[in-house]
Amino acid sequence: GQNIDQPTEMTATEGAIVQINCTYQTSGFNGLFWYQQHAGEAPTFLSYNVLDGLEEKGRFSSFLSRSKGYSYLLLKELQMKDSASYLCAVRDGDYKLSFGAGTTVTVRA
Amino acid sequence: IAGITQAPTSQILAAGRRMTLRCTQDMRHNAMYWYRQDLGLGLRLIHYSNTAGTTGKGEVPDGYSVSRANTDDFPLTLASAVPSQTSVYFCASSEQGGTTDTQYFGPGTRLTVL
Question: Average pLDDT in the A87-108 region?
Answer without folding.
Answer: 92
